[in-house]
Amino acid sequence: MKILLTGSNGQLGHDFKKLFDRKNIEYIATDSKELDITNDEKLKIFFQENGEVTHVINCAAYNDVDKAENNEKVWLLNAKAPKKLAEISKEIGAIFVTYSTDFVFDGNKSSPYLEEEETNGLSEYGKSKAKGEKEVFKIYDKSFVIRTSWVFGIANNNFNKQVINWSKSRNELNIVDDQVSAPTYSVDLAKFSWKLIQTEKFGLYHITNDGITSKYDQAKYVLKKIGWNGTLVRAKTADFNLPAKRPAYSKLDSSKVEKLLDEKIPSWQSGIDRFLEEMKENGEL
């Protein structure tokens, strides 16, 4: 077994590396500096030079939702690159894995989204991800596309870290209460993804931490845990005049993967608790 891991310096890539190190699984970790997955020629050379790759796990993505509204790179990274990686994986007979997002949905529901429901992204980010999903499945049947939501981990910036940083210099925070989904700890995402990948039951899956919350209640939970004494104020998404539209409700239903693995994914609160412990161990809290 030999795994190519793209986007390895991001939150999910970081936790895959830790998982593979623990399990003594051979992998090649690349980020954009080592491998530009939007460059077909560089991809071709890379695979020629790196021999028998059995799995391609693509954690690279363009995730800046607001900047994506005016940057064609979002389509290169989120749609073109997964398509090309799927093509190469098919040529070499490797299992292909890539990630998508709750933002492929418009958020007009009030119950969790199932894998087979129609996508209707509101932003360039959401639309590019939906396009990437479709392209992959058109090309290669030995593929996993894993949708997730509101990812947080130790290796990069995320909403939890932002809230903690804001709390250091402010006595009042305004956080939106009209965006609802499930925060997902990248440690759990890597763990459950790897269990899923090993089943070789290819297809589209949702993996998020269990439960549902708003950004406001997520921030409230984090701030209580760190003992912040300021005032948290409810705000609305419209108050912030952001370039990209967000789905109001984007909770994903993870029951398909839980049934397959016969295992429940931990709650988002448990994820945050362990994340804060990890931050303490790293001296970041």
TrEMBL record:
MF-aspect GO terms: dTDP-4-dehydrorhamnose reductase activity
Similarity field: Belongs to the dTDP-4-dehydrorhamnose reductase family.
The enzyme's E.C. designation: 1.1.1.133
InterPro entries: dTDP_dehydrorham_reduct (IPR005913), NAD(P)-bd_dom_sf (IPR036291), RmlD-like-bd (IPR029903)
Domain RmlD-like substrate binding span(s) in chain numbering: 1-279
Function: Catalyzes the reduction of dTDP-6-deoxy-L-lyxo-4-hexulose to yield dTDP-L-rhamnose.
Keywords in alphabetical order: NADP, Oxidoreductase
GO CC, alphabetical: cytosol
Name under which the protein is recorded: dTDP-4-dehydrorhamnose reductase
Pathway info: Carbohydrate biosynthesis; dTDP-L-rhamnose biosynthesis
GO biological process: dTDP-rhamnose biosynthetic process
Top EC class of this enzyme: oxidoreductase
